[in-house]
Amino acid sequence: MLETVFIIALLFGLIWLAWDLCWALFAKSRLQMAVNVAARAAVTGQLEDGAADLKSTIALVAENAAPEFLSAHLACRTLNINFYDQSGNPVSAPVDLGVVTVSVQNYPFTLLTPIFSMGASGPSTAAGTAASAIWVSSSRVSQACDPLNCPAVGTWPPSSCP
Amino acid sequence: MIEFVLVSGFFWVPLIYLVATTGFRLSRSEELVGLVNDVSQMFARGVDFSTSGNQTLLTGTLAATFHMQGNGPNTVTGGSSGDMVIVLSQYFYVNTADPGCNGCTNANNVVLERRIVVGNASLIGYQGSPSSVGTIPSGNLNTTTGTCEPADDNLPPSTTCQYTVAAVQVSSSAFNTIMTNLPTNGGGNIGGTVFLVEGYYTDITGRMIYQRSID
Hints:
The complex is a heterodimer of chains A (about 160) and B (about 220).
Chain A: H1 2-44, H2 54-65, H3 72-78, E1 79-84, E2 90-91, E3 98-109, H4 114-117, E4 124-125, E5 128-129, E6 132-142
Antiparallel strand pairs in A: 1-2, 1-3, 3-6, 4-5
Chain B: H1 2-44, H2 52-62, E1 77-79, E2 84-93, E3 110-120, H3 161-164, E4 169-170, H4 172-175, E5 193-202, E6 208-214
């Protein structure tokens, strides 16, 4: 009887571990894909329907690419958009041969296994305390916008998050 | 109880360890693929990773989760600490019809015309991972830009060392381990250029993850 209990505990541990690893990999790959798509959108210098400026466009593209993970609420808190010049110095707008980086930092990730997510000390979310955080990033070479059709860069994150 | 200890020790615990480490390595591999692809296309598009600003961008932002250390004073030859190194190489096929060649020493050869190492250089070739193909001998290395031309800080294609320095030639058999049929642009008058970025990372288990990208 005792052996059965121990074996079942280990078996559940293994199942939960595989479950959480799959969940973490899925979340990470979705977020990675979202920042990749957003970084590619960033270098086009075109605005998305419904976005007032370039940074809002980048955020909107990222949100639309992984809506199940990157809600407007979470995007506002975890999505970072930065531009750098040719020497790697931060700048306020894309420049020719500079770099644009789109990253999700400190994304609150809650493990599915209840035993691991209880009492965790990760970042806080509306859903509670997360067990760990995900960081993903994507970068592209930027180019200055067409002077005849240059969208406003805007600010990100906005002054108030939903 | 004996059976439980035996089954746990030889089956369950190793299985759980294997699943956990495989998962962590898979996650890191995926991250490394993205990073190397990003750096590769940036390098090919002209971002100069020999400058300290762009190296800081690489180590501090793009590869922030990899515990990558900067080069310090060794601008293009790498440092000796950290869990990761990125090797950026620029190969060039010297076409005989290239006006810059004109019967030069390296005609009809692939040459390594630029190499920049960022991070822990001792990880290159570690644990059976492939070593970067080709070398620029220290006497021919520009330690500021990573090109094979120490005389000035010009960047390819404004350099001439790719035509004249035989030591930077890469044998066909060695280059074929990267790719075969480098575009020689036989119909034009210049050769083809390949930008190769390699990432070497030792994960939480101390084992190597290697990834490369060609542009």
